[in-house]
Amino acid sequence: MAFAQWTRSMEWLAAASEDPRACKEEWQNGSTGVTLLAAGRFWDVLVVPEELGLRVADLLDELPLLNPGPCLLDARRRHVGFLLPPEPHAVWIGTGLRLLGRGTWIAAPAPHCRWGALRWLVPPDGTGTLTMPEILEVALQRCAGELSRLQGDPAPVGQGDGPFAPIPFPAESETFRSPQRA
């Protein structure tokens, strides 16, 4: 990561801290290099199980013309977090999914950190790029279907006809659903 981009990334990410100056100091010279950042102001975080999240991150990275948003791996807790636009009334449905919004916090390493148990799979770019919820929803469904088939389970309803098969209604049959207003 070039110095100018790293600086922009650090400024953008540190803005979510209660004390941006202390946050940047910890990232540059601190003992842990990890700080707490508030979710829900500039971004929400959709936390998914590690196996699914790693597949989704790879898929998003491979899509042409798509600039994926920041994606954080917590290998100790076996979770992957995708930074999304803040949506105070969002509801995500799916096994192991958890949406972190206003009033929640995440532990975050410096934006250049691509190693260790807590690291960026896709670091912030400093421009505010976030993962688009609609794209993330499709990627989650596709990757969940792949994992299901690999584990010998039948394909979830609506995914047997290929990656763009329609998702049936009612909502009870959906594996994942993007933000809906509560």
Walk me through this protein's architecture:
- The chain has 182 residues and is α+β, with helices and mostly antiparallel strands.
- It contains four helices and seven strands, in the order ααββαβββββα.
- The strands form two sheets. The protein has a five-stranded antiparallel beta sheet, with helices on one face.
- Mean pLDDT is 84; it is low at 158-175.
Short description:
The protein has 182 residues and is α+β, with helices and mostly antiparallel strands. It has helices spanning 3-14, 20-29, 50-62, 133-150, and strands spanning 34-38, 44-49, 71-74, 79-84, 98-100, 105-109, 118-122.
Mean pLDDT: 84
Number of strands: 7
Sequence of secondary-structure elements: HHEEHEEEEEH
Calculate Rg over CA atoms: 17 Å
Q: What is the 3D shape?
A: globular
Q: Descriptors for this entry?
A:
182 residues, five-stranded antiparallel beta sheet, alpha+beta, globular
How are the secondary structure elements laid out?
Blueprint: H1 3-14, H2 20-29, E1 34-38, E2 44-49, H3 50-62, E3 71-74, E4 79-84, E5 98-100, E6 105-109, E7 118-122, H4 133-150
Antiparallel strand pairs: 1-6, 2-4, 2-5, 3-4, 3-7
Helix pairs in contact: 3-4
